[in-house]
Amino acid sequence: MLLGLFPAAWAGGPAPRADLSATDRARVKDITRPATDFSRAEPFETMQGGAGTIKKLINPDIFSHPAANLSFEGRQEFMVGNGLFRKDWVSSPSSTQASDGLGPLFNARSCQACHVKDGRGTVPGFDPLERSDVVALLLRLSIPGSADEARQRLGQGEVASLPDPVYGHQLQPFAVPGLPAEGRINIQYREIAVALAGGASAVLMEPAYSVEDLGYGPLHPDVRYSPRLAPPMLGLGLLEAIHEDDILAHAAGDHGDGISGRPNWIHDARSGKRVLGRFNWKAGQPTVERQSANAFSGDMGLSTPLFPSHYGDCTPAQQACLDMPHGAQAHLGEHEVPARLMDFVTMYSQNLALPQRRDADDERVLAGKKLFYESNCIACHVPKYVTRRDAKRPEHRFQLIWPYTDLLLHDMGAGLADGQDEGDAGGREWRTPPLWGIGLTKTVNPNATWLHDGRARTLLEAILWHGGEAQAPRDRVVAMTPAQRADLIRFLESL
């Protein structure tokens, strides 16, 4: 029906890759072509994460296994990283000197507190009577600046956005003893009814955010809020191993429906160069290591070699925060999370395994896959890649993977806009999130929800929130029969 909408870049193959021979390039071009036969599963389609894919018992721990192709030594490093990812940090001073330094202001005590069992985080709840503390939902803060000021500061890589002058880059609802927290997030939801073809309907929940119990005076009068829910940790090392040429080829292609992805170029403090962003909701981080270090700093107030401040997001206007003791120990190194510990956490984050696809040959799943393609969902959710032959880690090299993302920015419309710029990303733009593992989301965390702020309670609701460049594919889903929409969801649940 709509196969003619597929990007021209796919028809001609990706841009030349220096890591591949001419023979390899031909093989990669052939195997990454979009499917045209929906009568059966494609070769290797069940192996979402290449040779690292696992076939384990489906239970709440399914996202927490090491990649199947890790070496014995790699598994040892993975287990150490797992322990660090799960451990609770404490405030200073403490007798547990290798675990102190939390805060002074923070969002969570551990990585696992936000990434529940290595999956998605949890929003406080849609029922006001059943609200819980905000942990996994971060509230990013920014203020508009003059074009010259923003261009100068962002161009120098000093910041990804202009922070609130008192509260910094994100609101932190927790603090160590003796220090006031920054405030408490309040969320109010408004119901929006959506009529669907075939007499069906859906109800969307539109959130509105405010901050209460401010601990350091008023926020800037023009402050903008950007809620960010902790995403799943699966396959991050494989996403890092996708060749830049393949990503940029999709940015250059003709996708149909007015869809045109853009890269987010990020300043790399180590090299001083601009590099391709791949991680977080606006592709604001270029590597797994930097994303992890940024979370240690912003979310837990812990210093690392990449972010050496012991005070996280504390600002000069919060002197009481800067006067608190930190957890760096001279005999352990100059950072609260020394380089070797960062290596373990990074390695762990790079090697969480993808579970094997389920029911890939099921008739209804294949029908849903066909609808996914025909609706032009793959214009952004690019199904498959072959990773670099020269990837840093051997287990990530030359793997056929199925992440369903282009890792590019897209205008998603006014309904999802946060009005906050991040590097090259605009206030209506979001990075295409990977879909692999999405069907097991609620197996891992029954309270998990979807989209950048967790507003979508179901996969259908997530689709219905799509606007902007994704408006036409979204409208095709609305126009489907109830049976077709059910098949589409079956396909997504098989991933």
TrEMBL record:
InterPro entries: Cyt_c-like_dom, Cyt_c-like_dom_sf, Cytochrome_c_Peroxidase/MauG, DHOR. The keyword Heme applies. GO terms for molecular function: cytochrome-c peroxidase activity; electron transfer activity; heme binding; metal ion binding. Keywords: Heme, Iron, Metal-binding. It comes from Pollutimonas bauzanensis. This is CxxC motif-containing protein, DUF1111 family. The keyword Ribonucleoprotein does not apply. Coiled coil: none annotated. It comes from the Bacteria.
